[in-house]
Structures are given as structure tokens and as C-alpha cells.
């Protein structure tokens, strides 16, 4: 593999706040890997749709992993399709596309189109509306209700992480303070020892009384 890069998957971030997402497109150079990374919440259902331009002799693979490098989904020699991943914990996830070209072939860049959808988009509101005989306005209100709950949950998790980071910072500051005090004490002791040693040395040489 001659190269690798990571691109922030902004469409996934946007999907926390909107009902629809836009596809992200990029060029995948021969024998390189490009990854899309995002942090997702617990119990999310992520649906990924991809399409890769076909080039004879070249193939593209994809793999979805979490922060522990556990494989959640993968496929080889893809051209067009989709995958579904259930996010079991709040974690950072990567979707990587890798190009493989045989040595005897001169590779060319391939266009990759990727679109991600979260579970807010896959709840089947239209089917639910028909089953419960809901009006179009009521379906839209239901979508807004679910979206609002998702936003509130996200803010709650952000607040929890902020508190955790604040506690970590306070603990780190205390440790740094103790280390600074210890360092100052060591320097003070070393300075006193140097003064006593030099005084004794000069006395032995009868340079001072």
C-alpha cells in the first residue's frame, strides 16, 4: 500500500441534526487507502451506500472498524452496494476504501461515492403513518419529535463528556502542582548541598576561613 489518508465524514456529523444526508465523493488513487472517520452514539443503526467507478484490472475493497480495530463489515472487489452496521457503543468508527492494482497494470484514479444514513432516517415513518392512519403533518411532527430527542440525548452525552474532561483536567493540574513542588524541593536541596560542598572545598584549600 503506497499511501493512506483520513477524511472527516462531515455528512455523518450533519446526520445528527438533519433527517437527510448528502453523498461525499472523492478520488481514490491506485494502491492507496482513504478512510472516513466519525464518532457515533450507542444503539445507532448506520446504513452506508457506496458506488465505485469500474476500471478493468483494478479492484476496491471496503472495511468498517471500531477504535479497537474490530471488523464490523467488509467486502472485496466492490462496485455498487450498501452495508448496515449496528453501533453497540459510543465509539469512533472508520470506513476505509482501499485500491489494489496489479504491478503489470498502470493504475488510474477511481471515483468513489459514499452516502451514510443513521437510524433516524430508517425508522419507516411513512409505513408507521399508514399503520396508525397519521396525517402527513403528524408524520412530520413525529420526525421532529424523534430528532429533538436525538439532539437532547447528544447534548446530554456532550455534557457528560465535558464533566469527565473537567475532572481529568483538575486531576492533572493537581499532579502537576505536586510534581512542581517536589522539583523545587529537589533543586533547593541540591543548591544547599552545592554551597556546603564548595564551602568545605574552599576551606580545605585555605581560600576562605
TrEMBL record:
Segments passing through the bilayer: 176-198
Domain GOLD: 33-143
Signal peptide: 1-23
Source organism superkingdom: Eukaryota
Subcellular location: Membrane
Membrane topology, as annotated: Single-pass type I membrane protein
Protein name: Transmembrane emp24 domain-containing protein eca
Species whose genome carries this gene: Nesidiocoris tenuis
Amino acid at each position: 500500500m503506497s499511501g493512506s489518508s483520513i477524511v472527516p465524514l462531515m455528512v455523518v456529523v450533519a446526520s445528527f441534526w438533519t433527517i437527510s444526508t448528502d453523498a461525499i465523493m472523492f478520488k481514490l488513487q491506485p494502491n492507496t487507502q482513504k478512510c472516513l472517520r466519525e464518532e457515533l452514539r450507542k444503539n445507532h443503526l448506520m446504513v452506508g451506500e457506496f458506488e465505485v467507478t469500474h476500471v478493468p484490472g483494478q479492484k476496491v475493497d471496503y472495511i468498517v472498524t471500531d477504535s479497537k480495530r474490530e471488523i464490523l463489515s467488509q467486502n472485496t472487489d466492490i462496485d455498487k452496494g450498501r452495508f448496515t452496521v449496528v453501533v453497540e457503543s459510543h465509539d469512533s468508527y472508520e470506513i476505509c476504501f482501499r485500491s489494489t492494482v496489479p504491478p503489470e497494470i498502470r493504475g488510474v484514479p477511481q471515483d468513489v461515492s459514499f452516502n451514510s444514513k443513521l437510524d433516524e432516517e430508517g425508522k419507516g415513518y411513512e409505513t408507521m403513518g399508514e399503520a396508525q392512519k397519521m396525517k402527513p403533518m403528524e408524520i412530520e411532527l413525529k420526525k421532529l419529535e424523534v430528532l429533538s430527542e436525538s439532539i437532547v440525548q447528544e447534548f446530554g452525552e456532550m455534557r457528560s463528556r465535558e464533566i469527565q474532561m473537567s475532572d481529568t483536567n483538575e486531576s492533572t493540574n493537581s499532579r502537576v502542582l505536586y510534581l512542581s513542588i517536589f522539583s523545587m524541593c529537589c533543586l533547593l536541596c541540591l543548591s544547599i548541598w552545592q554551597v556546603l560542598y564548595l564551602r568545605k572545598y574552599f576551606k580545605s584549600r585555605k581560600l576562605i576561613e
